[in-house]
Amino acid sequence: MTTRQSSAADFLNKVPAVTATFWLIKILSTTIGETFADFLAVQVGLGTAVTDGAMIAVLAVTLVAQLRTRHHVPWLYWLTVVLVSIVGTQITDFFTDTLGVSLYVSTAVFAVVLAVMFAVWWQQERTLAITAIDTPKRERFYWAAILTTFALGTAAGDLATEALSLGFRSGVLIFGGLILVVWVARRAGANSVLTFWIAYILTRPLGASLGDLLTQAASYGGIGLGAGLTSVLFLAVIVGIVVREQVNANRHGVRTKGQAPAVAPARDYAWAVSGAAVVAVAAAMLGPVVNPAAAATSPADSQSGPVTAGKPATGIEADATSPLGDLRPFAIIVDDVAVKVSAGDIPGGTARVKDLEVAWDTAEAAIKPASPEDWHLMDSAVDDVLTSLRAGQPSASDVTSALTNLQTVIGTLDQKK
Fold first, then answer.
1. Which candidate, 257, 129, 143, 146, places its Cα nearest to that of 196?
2. What does the alpha-carbon distance between residue 58 and residue 77 come to, in Å, rounded to a whole number?
3. How would you label 357-384 residue by residue, b for 16+ Cβ within 10 Å and e otherwise?
4. pLDDT at 199 over 50
């Protein structure tokens, strides 16, 4: 065999077979990608810019390693998918949150970019099939398309959530149902390449909705596992399945083009069902946990700032005093920060505002669908407070102005009811 023939053969197995476990890992990796980025940016405190830069750098290194391998390496492939999930989400969030681009525009732009990419890919290679990623050029097209599908899936999912005011429970049902429709169409004879890419895009909003359902507190209508526990649970299931794939790859060697997967379909379905069952059982046994926003109203955290109406806040559904629900948990923190700043304790205000950032970020999936316009209004005011307090040399007047504006926004929303 010539060197050129050997090189081509080495690329026959750079992408795994599309099986039940393939789709399970894809959905779970979406949630891990989103929650891990949020954890670094908010809980760890790296901020959006540092987190974005770090994730892009890590993805670049991992993608180069993936492209340089001579055959399919399961752990490396799925690590790349998780990182692409993170960066794809960050791209959409950058356009939406930083540049203020409408989700209608970003969804349309990403859809056009993906269509152009597929057109060029088809014009040059005459196939878009995942089973034909057997040359370096096709693999580069493949990963570019994967990144774009994540960005498009994020934008389209967020657009559907905002435009239709879908909650995460409805999101799970709707996007899961759409994937089921695609599966039925494929079984009925629809084009396999088209149905694959449609399903691949839809798994992004499905994974995000599923993650929100598990992470959100019970008072918000979620299961209450929290982002950290959900990420660990999903990662454990992914690692278990990928280790199985890696062991099989080491045992059976490189799978040639058209060869059946090393694991029989029935056994693969069993692994997928087992993985999903682990998630379901863990969710039933471990949830719910305390709602972070409600926890912010505990006496220990509320040393200053009155509780509205003289009663403790118990979650967004406890007293729908605004289009976004009960904003008292956030108002209490804002009042605490304002008291510290007015006393000249800028460092104390900066430390306390971290609770606001975490509580607001945690509650986003639950409260944003209720009134996206009002959410964006308050989100902008929250960002102004965070920016003013975290400036290189915080100005007391700027901080006070931002806090006053945020208190005004909360008061205005409370009056809208």
1. 129
2. 14
3. bbbbbbbebbbbbbbbebbeebbebbeb
4. yes
Long-range contacts of 377-383 (CB under 8 A, 24+ apart): 377/409, 377/413, 378/324, 378/327, 378/406, 378/409, 378/410, 378/413, 381/405, 381/406, 381/409, 382/356, 382/357, 382/406
pLDDT tens digit sequence for 112-140: 999 999 999 999 999 999 888 888 999 99
Computed from CA positions of residues 102, 108, 113, 118, in that sequence, does the dihedral angle turn out positive or negative?
A: positive
CB under 8 A, 24+ apart: contacts of 64-72: 66/143, 67/136, 67/139, 67/140, 67/143, 69/14, 70/10, 70/11, 71/10, 71/11, 71/12, 71/13, 71/14, 71/254, 72/13, 72/14, 72/15, 72/16, 72/249, 72/254, 72/255
d(CA 264, CA 153): 31
CA-CA distance, 339 to 246, in Å (whole number)? 56
Q: Are 301 and 237 in contact (CB under 8 A)?
A: no
Q: What is the C-alpha to C-alpha distance for residues 364 and 359, in angstroms, rounded to an integer? A: 9
Helix pair angle (136-163, 103-125), 10° resolution: 160
Each residue's pLDDT tens digit, 12-55: 558 888 899 999 999 998 888 767 777 777 777 777 888 889 99
Write out the two tokens for 252: 């059976």
- Flag whether the pTM goes above 0.70: yes
Q: Give the residue carrying structure tokens 């019970």.
A: 218
CA 2 distance to own-chain centroid: 45
| Contact of 114 with 147, CB cutoff 8 Å | no
- CB-side exposure of 319: number of CA atoms within 13 Å? 13
Q: Would you state the structure tokens that stand for residue 319, as one six-digit string?
A: 């007293």
Domain ranges of the chain: 3-286, 292-416
- Dist CA 48 CA 58 (whole Å): 15
